Amino acid sequence: MKQIAPVEAVLFDLLTALLDSWSVWNHAAGSEADGLRWRRAYLELTYGCGMYRPYEDLVREAADKAEVPASAADALAARWDTLQPWPEAPALLSDLAARGVRLGVVTNCSITLGRRAAERVGVPFSVVVTSEETGYYKPRPESYRAALDRLGTDPSRTLFVAGSPADIPGAARVGMPVFWHNRAGLPFVADRARPFLIADSLYPLEELVR
To answer: Which pTM was predicted?
Structure first.
């Protein structure tokens, strides 16, 4: 496996790299197809607006754009505390923390929902940075930089674990090596910044962070 500079900290995208948010969106929408279409509409709105607008408003606008019932947004909010971490996440992160590696998350979310989602992982984080706090949505640099500042770590020694392709150039632009946890098997777009590694699970962290 490729090696990178010794890692002092690991930052994660929360709602895709660590948590199975897809299942919750799909359940709220009523089907996998509706959930996927709704989620894609939400991502388009999020990446397009840049500056923070209330997360809940974007979720509702995306439902309308994707022709998903407006009640889906309420169902998503009601099921938020059912978010589940990917099976290997709690043990892997606990091991990293026990070895003195600082952990944090950077999420396109409101403060309240971001904190609640982070608690679902079951592992304490040194920092939880939300777009509501920084005033901007990823992949703009403000949220990544805020997390680095709070950790007090050098970007080259802070691994970013992306859950979606948009995080790859965003995190890379501020100097972090990027591991893409591509659980859904999405195609890699060649014109994007290249991640250090792509895998369909979090297990490579055992070798990347020593």
So the answer is: 0.94
Could you tell me which residues come within 8 angstroms of residue 21 by beta carbon, excluding any fewer than 6 positions away?
15, 83, 117
Domains belonging to the chain, first-starting first, are: 9-20+83-208 (3.40.50.1000), 21-80 (no CATH)
Distance CA 165, CA 188 (A): 8
101-119 pLDDT, tens per residue? Answer: 999 999 999 999 999 999 9
Distance CA(87)–CA(117), nearest Å, equals 16
Between CA 40 and CA 35 the distance in angstroms is 9
Query: How far apart, in whole angstroms, are the C-alpha atoms of residue 11 and residue 158?
Result: 7
Q: What is the DSSP string of 92-108?
A: HHHHHHHTT-EEEEEES
As a whole number of angstroms, the distance between CA 58 and CA 53 comes to: 7
User: Considering just the CA atoms, what is the radius of gyration of the chain in Å?
Assistant: 16
